[in-house]
Amino acid sequence: MSGKLSEREVMEALSQVKDPETHLSLLKMNMIRDVKVDEGRVNLTLVLTTPACPLKGEIKSRVEKALYGLPGIRQVEIKMDANVPAQRRPLVDNLLPDVRNSIAVASGKGGVGKSTVAVNMAVALARTGANVGLLDADCYGPSIPLMMGVMERPRSAPGTKKILPLESYGVKLMSLGFFLDDNSPVIWRGPMVTSAIQQMLGEVEWGDLDYLLVDLPPGTGDIHLTLTQKVPLSGAVIVSTPQDVALIDARKGLAMFQKVNVPVLGIIENMSYFVCPHCEHRTNIFSHGGVRKACEKLEVPFLGEIPLDPNICAGGDEGKPIVIADPDSSQSKAFMEVVGALAASISVRSFLPEVKIIN
Description:
CATH topology of the largest domain: Rossmann fold
Strand order of the largest sheet: 6-7-5-8-4-9-10-13
Helix content: 25-40%
Distance between the termini: 42 Å
Largest sheet: 8 strands, mixed
Shape: globular
Radius of gyration: 22 Å
């Protein structure tokens, strides 16, 4: 090749660069935009499918390698951006039209730390720059207000009948707990709970969100069915501990979502191991690795493992999640890895909805 490098030649080189997860061309995925070629210099914008992309460094490196492989290229400048794609599961009666991705966070049984995981995932996603909401759908035992350090009562949006969500650590929040006294039990039959969930979905001014995480109560029941019928869920995340008894119930949750045609984005192993703060010796309190093995057998993604750690528990009690209280800790990094895997799973499904992602 000789003479001045043309934009056509640059675009041809870029067309060969593929996303490492979908294996589709970055151009086909509309991830490369605003390409400018000027005297051996190339400027472009690389638009990721999520700000939480765990492979952003590799994708950028692939683009640079393709361009520097062209003769005459002296400089490549890449501006990074992100645009989260919306899921592809429309409903006739969609209560959340401005939410790109709704994710149910579920567990087959109580006591596995589901709400703690949901809170830290929401804050971790917000830390990446995503617009995030968190709905506490556990009407009988709402814990999000305490864990997020918010005890106010929501206000009505000016000029509308909708309610403004509260906000903490960059996450929009709604919970029945905001409307209850501390010691007030919720003694409701199923229809009342269903009505409350629909109100917190459709009568709240959630605004434009990349991700809305819905913290479900343990087990399967009316709330789960309401959610799947009224919200086009991008998928569900199941939280489990490694013990066999927890995994049995996690499988039931998995089967429930499969029956209502909601894809399971993956399973998280919580309380996976304990690291001594003094000697840093790692101890597997509960048979570590049970969730990963179950994921392989069930053919669902394994999203990662979270340690059993007193600082994580303290963060929930103090209203300051660990990813905020100690963002550089190994515990926080574990949550960041989990949300990276989750966001990647959602992005891949938006382009390849039938794909099975097994880690």
